[in-house]
Amino acid sequence: MSVDQEQQWITAEEFQREYRRLIEGGVPDDAPEFRALMERAQARDDYLYERYGKAYLETHYGKWIAVSPEGKVIIRDRLAEVLQESRSTFGPGNASIRKLAGFPGLEFYH
Known about the structure:
Elements: H1 12-24, H2 32-53, E1 64-67, E2 73-76, H3 79-90, E3 96-99
Antiparallel strand pairs: 1-2, 1-3
């Protein structure tokens, strides 16, 4: 999928509604319906990061970023800070949250 592709991305409300429907319907966690739902959310988050967040990689390396569907960003030093502010600013589940690093997830040290 092209990063520039515009489409109707899943909203947090749609995700929660479908997630609840699957759980209430007794659908197992590893069922194709759950995987498809998670893939839709992941595609949205990947797009938002690539389109709006990745530009901050060099200037804010190592910090955490939350990107709203409208392209607004919050950048903080700690994950807890970006989660809290993102939830209060964009609403629960309405942002792609990543670490601005070569690998935009959690880093493990041994």
